[in-house]
Amino acid sequence: MDSPGLGWLADSGWPGCLVFARGVSEDQVLRAFGADPDEAVLREPGEPVPAPEGMTDAAPVIRVGRVGDWVIVIEEGEPPQGVRPEVLRRVSVGGGEAVALHQDIGKLNHEFAHAVDGEIVTAVTTSVPAHWRGTQPERLQPLAEELGLEDGADADLSELEVLLALAEGVFGLRLSPSDLERPMRPSVSAA
Questions:
Q1: Within the chain, where are the H helices?
Q2: What is the pLDDT at residue 107?
Q3: 113-145 pLDDT per residue, tens
Q4: Peptide bond into 129 cis (omega under 30)
Q5: Which residues are within 8 A (CB) of 17 and not within 5 positions of it... i.e. 6 or more apart?
Q6: Residue 38 φ/ψ region, left for φ over 0, alpha for ψ in the -120 to 50 degree band, beta for the rest
Q7: At 64, is the secondary structure helix, strand, or coil?
Q8: 7 partner at 20 to 30 Å CA-CA among 1, 19, 81, 159?
Q9: R_g of the chain, CA atoms, integer Å
Q10: Could you give the 3-state DSSP secondary structure of residue 33?
C-alpha cells in the first residue's frame, strides 16, 4: 500500500520535527546531529534510549530510519535541532539534500526548510508575516502563497497543512503511520 503522503500529519499529533534527507547515509545524518552512529542500534518505538555517560536522561533523542529513498529523522525533544541552518547544512553537505518540517504547537510558528549540498536554498517560518530566507527564498514562496500561506489569507489549508503540501508536492515526500511504528536507530543528539 502506498504511503498516504504527509497531509495526515497535521491532525495526528506527530512528533515536533521531521527531517528527510537523501544522497547521504544514516550514519552521516546521525553525525550531522552530533550523535554517535555506533551508539544508534535498532530499537522499537518507545523503547528507552540510554543517555551517554555524562549526559542527562533529558538529552534530546533522534530516531533515524529509511522511508523509500529518504533517510528520515524524527526528533523527540524541544527545541528542534533539525531546522537549525547549521544542522541542515551538515546533513546535506557532500551532494545531499534535506527537507525539514517543524510543528510548533505553542506559538504556531511552524517551519519548513530545504537544503542542498550544504546550502539552505529556501526556508520559511509561518509567523505573521511569514518569514522567508535562504539563497533562493522566492523559489517556493509563490506556490506557498497560492496554497494559502499569506498574511490575512482566507485559505482552505492551515499554515502547517501548506508546509506539508509543499514537502509532499514539490519533493514527493511520503510517510505512513506504519513508517513511524517501525524499529529505527535512536541516539542522543548533541547538535
A1: 26-32, 85-92, 141-147, 159-171, 177-181
A2: 84
A3: 999 999 999 999 998 788 999 999 999 999 998
A4: yes
A5: 73, 74, 75, 80, 81, 82, 83, 100, 101, 102, 103
A6: alpha
A7: strand
A8: 81
A9: 16
A10: coil
Return the residue matching grid coordinates 527531517.
19
The grid coordinates of residue 145 equal 502563497
45-61 b/e (C-beta count within 10 Å ≥ 16 → b): eeeebeeeeeeeeeebb
Residue 6, pLDDT above cutoff 50: yes
Dihedral sign of CA atoms 75, 81, 87, 88 in order? positive
Q: 22 — phi, psi (to 5°)? A: -135, 160
Cell triple for residue 7?
497531509
Q: What values do phi and psi take at 31, rounded to 5?
A: -60, -40
Residues 27-71: tens digit of each pLDDT: 999 999 999 898 888 888 777 776 666 665 556 788 999 999 999
Question: What is the grid cell recorded at 167?
Answer: 514537502
Domain assignments of the chain as residue spans, ordered by start: 12-139+175-188
Give every CB contact of residue 143 below 8 A, 6+ residues apart in sequence.
166, 169, 170
Q: Using an 8 Å Cβ cutoff, are 69 and 18 in contact?
A: no
